[in-house]
UniProtKB/TrEMBL annotation:
GO terms for molecular function: histidinol-phosphate transaminase activity; pyridoxal phosphate binding. Keywords: Amino-acid biosynthesis, Aminotransferase, Histidine biosynthesis, Pyridoxal phosphate, Transferase. It comes from Halococcus salifodinae DSM 8989. GO terms for biological process: L-histidine biosynthetic process. Its EC number is 2.6.1.9. The keyword Amino-acid biosynthesis applies. Belongs to the class-II pyridoxal-phosphate-dependent aminotransferase family. Histidinol-phosphate aminotransferase subfamily. The gene is hisC. Residues 1-11 have a biased composition (Basic and acidic residues). The modification N6-(pyridoxal phosphate)lysine is found at K228. It catalyses: L-histidinol phosphate + 2-oxoglutarate = 3-(imidazol-4-yl)-2-oxopropyl phosphate + L-glutamate. Pathway: Amino-acid biosynthesis; L-histidine biosynthesis; L-histidine from 5-phospho-alpha-D-ribose 1-diphosphate: step 7/9. PANTHER family: HISTIDINOL-PHOSPHATE AMINOTRANSFERASE (PTHR43643:SF6), HISTIDINOL-PHOSPHATE AMINOTRANSFERASE 2 (PTHR43643). The lineage of its organism: Archaea, Methanobacteriati, Methanobacteriota, Stenosarchaea group, Halobacteria. This is Histidinol-phosphate aminotransferase. Residues 1-21 are annotated as: Disordered.
């Protein structure tokens, strides 16, 4: 039997327990500024909240198993066939479906280092192996086709993250295409765009579909989520857009009801409220710039809703900030013990975080 390394799950508890922290500090939990999980500080669209309340009267019956309304709306948004949309319990759920569909026992995946932990966790839970490529350069982090191709050794899935968590870097579409073209035919390149709404870089869906001057490719998939720009992290709703040849594999790997009625209703309403997403992105861009210019630490240019900052002893800085009521992500678990990641908060939250962190950094 495959055993799980439970310590891996600790990364999912980073930033949890704010209420206990507040109690220990004698603070009102509402006074804590939690900028550790890249959530939307403005919450979901009001239309999504209404949809959630309205769906309450239906939760005694099972959802439509094909989740057809939401899947059709997502397919419409990307101009793909509904079968190419693999709806799941969050982006994490979609990663599990990809692992299940692609990984025979012992098959390997290639993941970025530093990078999002669940690529490797999901592969291991599906009896796969994990290898990594490095984003590190002399003066920071970049994502290049060379870094991937230099170490590629026939892995079944190659993960790219754009924007990348936690560095905020993106991969340009020419690099994605080159990686797909120069890897084996049966390697699927998965571009994780969990933070895609916040980026200038366009979505790799155009490579899957062959639009805007690109040839269509059958070896690229794209991951998206409602957890970030849509502010629905607690609902657990995400999906992969897969190329045509993989469309039918969904029915072999999905759980019978991949997303709840409540999640589907909220997702549908959220998709419709473009303005809420636009306001969220505007606010994140402001916070990114503010963090860049006002924090007394080296920051890395980010296209996500967070900024990576070099602060020396990240664990000490994060703890000291937490004692002052500001929770940021200590990136030691990403292999970056000198970095913290600060999510873009509201204006007030971001200003308070910067002021507290600057106080801590001044020692
Ligand atoms: N990809 C990346 C890069 C992430 O940072 C996250 C969440 N932190 C996810 C995927 C998955 O998010 P979710 O399961 O909430 O959709």
């Amino acid at each position: 039997m495959q055993t799980r390394d439970l310590s891996e799950h600790a990364v999912y508890r980073a930033g949890e327990g704010s209420e206990e922290v507040a109690r220990e500090l004698g603070l009102d939990p509402d006074d804590l500024v939690k900028l550790s999980s890249n959530e939307n500080p403005h919450g979901p669209s009001p239309a999504a909240m209404t949809a959630i309340s309205e769906a309450a009267s239906e939760v005694h019956v099972y959802p439509k198993s094909a989740h057809s309304d939401l899947v059709a709306a997502i397919a419409d948004q990307w101009e793909v066939a509904p079968a190419q949309v693999w709806l799941a319990n969050g982006g994490d759920g979609a990663l599990d479906y990809l692992s299940r569909a692609l990984l025979d026992p012992g098959a390997a995946v290639l993941v970025p280092e530093p990078g999002f932990a669940y690529y490797g966790m999901s592969a291991r839970y599906h009896h796969g192996q994990v290898r990594s490529y490095s984003l590190r350069t002399e003066d920071g982090f970049t994502q290049s086709a060379d870094a991937v191709l230099d170490v590629y050794d026939g892995e079944r899935i190659v993960y790219l993250t754009s924007p990348h968590n936690p560095t905020g870097t993106t991969v340009d579409l020419a690099a994605v295409e080159r990686i797909a073209a120069e890897t084996n035919e049966d390697t699927l390149v998965v571009v994780d765009e969990a933070y895609g709404e916040f980026a200038e870089t366009p979505s790799a869906v155009r490579l899957v579909e062959g639009r805007e001057g690109w040839d269509a490719r059958e070896d690229i998939a794209v991951l998206r989520t409602f957890s970030k720009a849509y502010g629905l992290a607690g609902l657990r709703l995400g999906y992969a857009v897969v190329p045509e040849p993989w469309a039918d594999a969904y029915t072999r790997v999905n759980t019978p009801f991949a997303a709840s009625t409540v999640a589907c209703r909220a997702g549908l309403a959220a998709l419709d409220d473009r303005e809420h997403v636009e306001r969220t992105v505007e606010s994140a861009v402001w916070a990114r710039e503010y963090l860049d210019s006002e924090l007394d630490a080296r920051t890395h240019a980010s296209e996500g809703n967070f900024v990576l900052a070099e602060v020396g002893d990240a664990s000490a800085v994060a703890s000291a900030a937490q004692r002052r009521g500001v929770i940021v992500r200590d990136c030691t678990s990403f292999g970056l013990p000198e970095c913290i990641r600060i999510s873009c908060g509201t204006r007030a939250e971001t200003e308070r975080a910067v002021s507290v962190l600057n106080e801590v950094l001044a020692g």
